[in-house]
Amino acid sequence: MDDRQRYDQATATLEAPFALLDLAAVRANAADMVRRAGGKPIRVASKSIRSRQVLELIMAMDGFRGVMAFTLPEALWLVERGFSDVLVAYPTADRHALAALAADARAASEITVTVDSPGHLDYLETAISEVHPRHEIRISIDIDAGYVALGGKFRVGALRSPVRDPDQAADLAADIAKRPGLRLVGLMAYEAQIAGVGDAPPGHPAYARAIRLIQARSARELVLRRGRVVNAVRELCDLEFVNGGGTGSIERTVREKAITEVAAGSGFFHPRLFDFYRGFTGHPAALFALPVVRLPSPGVVTVLGGGYLASGPPGPTRLPQPYLPAGLRYTADEAAGEVQTPLLGRPAEDLRIGDRVWFRHAKAGELCERFDTLHLIDGDTLVDSVPTYRGEGRTFL
């Protein structure tokens, strides 16, 4: 039985559109990530999952420890629901959530918030100033992991933290130490230009070579700079964790002595953008089915919905992939539409009204912002249906 038949059989009682999660693929992807991590724990990036029950399933597997959340309200909700060791990897400007964090003993002991400037510390202190009694706030510093060359004229990597060098990190660490009620417990540095950029884009060999060259140089620069940053901060305080990496760089990042854990999330679902890495091969695990609702002309079908574009620079790589049956493609004029999506290709000749076309999202967790339920299959059997964040009425972004 091929994958399309398996998906269709397992979900025969469901009405499309709907989202599916293949548990066998998730388990295989998770096992490979653990292998690549070489014994260092993997912190699970919740933005790539966005389902509480699926997070619980993953956290029950060996090799995974802690959650990397994307907002403080999300972290507070996860801890309320029983999760522990939650790192909010992005700075927050949510005054109410900060006050709630300071007022809750368990939340304050389990959640770490991220800063990269004294301005964040000032804002945090103001937000919790009226909380009495209040609990100590755990802090992580975000270090810029971007690659800079040619005297600053060339840069790749996410525009995140202004903290790059050991002195800047040490100065911020010293500032945290002077503020009562704040405690520095960790550092993080996400090398987006390595972990989040596939080094084997199809059909562009010259571009692929350029990516590999830049990634190699960036990795060499970062291993030295990150190590010096960590050493400088450790002279001032004890650190519980130093977090780095992502799905695309696990095996490279764990080789750094300074790193105590890596983060990963997209690798569990293996969305379309993660097909283009030489270092690993994942199994597509998260898909969505759209029903055929029109047959406009020979070789053309129209499906319901489909305009689920991924974040990032706009372009074809951010479109969902018509996956099964293989060989379907978008029209140049309409692409993925708000309410309907026409598809071209020889397989369209065999499709009929009510048949399904299976798609893969370009990214991982963003799929869950479109669906309130993930239907879980194992083999060719539907074993459960669990809510996404949206299905639990939680829209954190």
Notable traits:
9-stranded mixed sheet, 12 helices, 8-stranded parallel barrel, 397 residues, 24% strand, Lyase, Ornithine Decarboxylase, Chain A, domain 1, 2 domains, TIM Barrel, alpha/beta
Explain what this protein looks like in three dimensions.
This protein has 397 residues and is an alpha/beta fold. It folds into two domains: 22-268, Alanine racemase (TIM Barrel, Alpha-Beta Barrel), CATH 3.20.20; 286-391, Lyase, Ornithine Decarboxylase, Chain A, domain 1. It is 30% helix and 24% strand. It has twelve helices and 19 strands. It has helices at residues 3-10, 23-37, 52-59, 72-80, 95-103, 105-110, 118-127, 166-178, 192-195, 205-234, 250-253, 266-269; strands spanning 18-22, 42-45, 64-69, 86-88, 111-115, 137-142, 147-149, 154-156, 182-189, 241-244, 261-264, 286-297, 300-304, 321-324, 329-330, 340-344, 356-360, 373-378, 381-387. The strands form three sheets. Strands 1, 12, 13, 14, 15, 16, 17, 18 and 19 form a nine-stranded mixed β-sheet that branches. It has an eight-stranded parallel barrel with strand order 2-3-4-5-6-9-10-11, surrounded by five helices. Helix 5 (95-103) crosses helix 7 (118-127) and helix 8 (166-178) packs across helix 10 (205-234).
